[in-house]
Structure formats: structure tokens, C-alpha cells
């Protein structure tokens, strides 16, 4: 008798009146919100402006959803295009089925378009949103729990996942690989945040670290899964994909560190120009204040100087009008007459 296990939801849909709220879609939306929120905080801390991450996400998210769905449909085409299957189901994204490899690849194309429109380098943007993306993956994996999919081999562990019988599912207790991957993603997110603070990762290396670390976990978790998948040389296709992407990410980190060491000083040219303009405006304002103060000082001193000059003139005039002043003038006149008489005699 099993005393402990993780129960699965009886349904993946909650009806809010006429509106169906699907657990899978809700987890995806919540994950996108967390990714944008955390990415915005990290972008601002790097010197960018608020709102830039969300503006670029408007391009990246739709591209990522399309890419994720395309990867899933292409790699599991038999689920939609084989005999007895309905190809229309390929468009029912709410029923599950998003490949992270396609989501990241095509999402990067959307992010590149958004970055070019704002004059931003894609690697700097990728570094800022890397932890948010992997936390979004951790949340999104709970959508698989709602749909009772992506579980592992049978197990009797206390944290086994209960799966009910339906369609191609066999009732039983299985490894909760969705939970393993969710917890792994949380660990990767904190690893990237720590390494970025410790080593000042730049030029896309924080994003590459996220990719490499995620691939390590995805490889062993993928190996535990029992859902239908294509195999190459005895390994599931996604295991080979994880190995290849891991190698590419490691090579990028090594080469990038040698070619472009350090971290970008300016991540958003527009914000830098705005800061310089604000600084210039501040300097101009200080100069204006200095001129204003000088003018006010001159205005205050002018009446005072004029009053002093007027007082001096008045004092001279009063002195001239005094009896002594008159006496001095009379003496000067007598002296002039005597001088004139002497000159006449000579």
C-alpha cells in the first residue's frame, strides 16, 4: 500500500463562468510575467531603462511560443500526422507540447528583432533575462502536472506521481520528472545570478551558462522519461540535443571570455544619451543660476553705488556753498586781480 505520493489534478481546466482557465496556459503566462519582471530589474541594474525588457519581450514571446510548438510537432510528428490522428491537434497548444529548444532558438530571433529596433546588443539583453527565462521554465513545467504528461519510469518512492488512466496513459505511480526539472531550473537560475555577481559575466556568457547548466540536468531527466520519442543510437533525441547544445554553450563561454573579456559598460545607448542630455541640462541650469545670481547681485549693488555717488556730489556742492567756500573763492579772485595788475606794469 502506497502511503505517500503526489496526486495529479483530476482536470487541467477550471471554468470561470464561460471562460475556461487552463492550467498549462496559466503556468506559461505566469512564467512569462516572472521572466519579464526579473529581467527588467536586472536590466535596470545594468544601466538600462525601465520598460525595455517588456518592449523586446513583445517580439520574443510570440516567436518563442511558435518555435517551441514547431519543435514539438516536428520531432513528434507521429502524434499529429500518422494514420488515425487529427493534424488539427497540432495547433492545440493549450493541450501541452512545447519544445524548449525551439522556443529558445526562435525566441532569440524575436529578441534580436526587438533589440535592433532599440539599438541594443542581443548578448547584453540575453544576460539580463537569462535567470528569468529559467525560472519561467520552472513554473511552466507545472503545466505538465496539470496535463498529466512528461512523467518518468514507475517508482514506489514517497514522492512518486500518481497518473490516472486515460487514452495512452496507464494508471500508476511514476517518477515526477516535471518536478525534477522544475527544481533543477530553480537551481540553475540561482547559479546564474550568483555567477553573474561574482564574475561580472558579460557579452552573453551569463546566458550561455544558463544554457549549459540546464542541458546537464535535462540530459539525465530526459533519460528517465517514458513518453514516446525518437531514438538515435539508443538515446532519446532530446538527450543528443542537450549534449550538442551543452558543448556549443561551453565553447561560446571560453571563446567569448578570450575575445571580449569583462562586461559591457553601456547596455542601452539611448539611456546613456538621455543621461548625458540630463547632465548637460543640469550644467546649463547651474550656469544659468550663476548668471542669475550675478545679475541679482549687480542689481542690488547698483542703487547703493548710485546713492553713494549722489551723496558725494551733494557733499561737494554743500562745501562750495558754505562761508568758507565763499571765502576761498574770494581769495582766489583777489589773487588773480593782483597777478593781472603786476603783468600790466611790467
Automatic annotation (TrEMBL):
It is a multi-pass membrane protein. Residues 267-346 are annotated as: Disordered. It comes from the Bacteria. One of its GO terms (biological process) is lipoprotein biosynthetic process. It holds the Pfam family LGT. GO terms for molecular function: phosphatidylglycerol-prolipoprotein diacylglyceryl transferase activity. Pathway: Protein modification; lipoprotein biosynthesis (diacylglyceryl transfer). Residues 289-307, 316-330 have a biased composition (Basic and acidic residues). It is found in: Cell membrane. The chain crosses the membrane at residues 20-38, 50-71, 91-113, 120-140, 178-195, 207-225, 237-255. It is an enzyme of class 2 (transferase). A 1,2-diacyl-sn-glycero-3-phospho-(1'-sn-glycerol) binds at residue 141. Keywords: Cell membrane, Membrane, Transferase, Transmembrane, Transmembrane helix. Its EC number is 2.5.1.145. Catalyzes the transfer of the diacylglyceryl group from phosphatidylglycerol to the sulfhydryl group of the N-terminal cysteine of a prolipoprotein, the first step in the formation of mature lipoproteins. Belongs to the Lgt family. This is Phosphatidylglycerol--prolipoprotein diacylglyceryl transferase. It comes from Streptomyces termitum.
Amino acid at each position: 500500500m502506497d502511503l505517500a505520493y503526489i496526486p495529479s489534478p483530476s482536470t487541467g481546466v477550471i471554468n470561470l463562468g464561460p471562460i475556461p482557465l487552463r492550467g498549462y496556459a496559466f503556468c506559461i503566462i505566469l512564467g512569462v510575467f516572472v521572466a519579464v519582471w526579473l529581467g527588467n530589474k536586472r536590466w535596470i541594474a545594468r544601466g538600462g531603462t525601465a520598460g525595455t525588457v517588456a518592449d523586446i519581450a513583445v517580439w520574443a514571446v510570440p516567436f518563442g511560443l511558435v518555435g517551441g510548438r514547431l519543435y514539438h510537432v516536428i520531432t513528434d510528428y507521429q502524434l499529429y500526422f500518422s494514420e488515425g490522428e487529427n493534424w488539427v491537434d497540432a495547433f492545440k497548444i493549450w493541450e501541452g507540447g512545447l519544445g524548449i529548444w525551439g522556443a529558445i532558438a526562435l525566441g532569440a530571433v524575436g529578441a534580436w528583432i526587438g533589440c535592433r529596433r532599440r539599438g541594443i546588443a542581443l548578448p547584453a539583453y540575453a544576460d539580463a533575462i537569462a535567470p528569468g527565462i529559467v525560472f519561467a521554465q520552472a513554473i511552466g513545467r507545472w503545466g505538465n502536472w496539470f496535463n498529466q504528461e512528461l512523467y518518468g519510469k514507475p517508482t514506489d518512492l514517497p514522492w512518486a506521481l500518481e497518473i490516472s488512466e486515460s487514452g495512452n496513459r496507464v494508471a500508476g505511480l511514476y517518477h515526477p520528472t516535471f518536478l525534477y526539472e522544475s527544481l533543477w531550473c530553480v537551481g540553475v537560475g540561482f547559479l546564474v545570478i550568483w555567477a553573474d555577481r561574482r564574475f561580472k559575466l558579460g557579452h552573453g556568457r551569463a546566458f550561455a551558462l544558463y544554457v549549459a547548466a540546464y542541458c546537464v540536468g535535462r540530459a539525465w531527466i530526459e533519460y528517465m522519461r517514458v513518453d514516446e520519442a525518437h531514438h538515435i543510437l539508443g538515446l532519446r533525441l532530446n538527450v543528443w540535443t542537450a549534449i550538442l547544445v551543452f558543448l556549443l554553450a561551453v565553447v561560446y563561454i571560453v571563446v567569448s571570455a578570450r575575445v571580449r573579456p569583462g562586461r559591457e559598460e553601456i547596455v542601452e545607448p539611448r539611456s546613456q544619451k538621455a543621461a548625458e542630455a540630463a547632465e548637460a541640462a543640469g550644467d546649463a541650469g547651474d550656469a544659468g543660476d550663476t548668471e542669475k545670481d550675478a545679475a541679482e547681485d549687480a542689481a542690488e549693488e547698483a542703487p547703493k553705488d548710485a546713492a553713494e555717488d549722489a551723496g558725494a556730489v551733494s557733499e561737494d556742492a554743500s562745501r562750495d556753498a558754505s562761508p568758507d567756500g565763499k571765502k576761498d573763492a574770494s581769495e582766489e579772485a583777489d589773487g588773480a586781480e593782483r597777478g593781472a595788475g603786476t603783468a600790466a606794469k611790467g
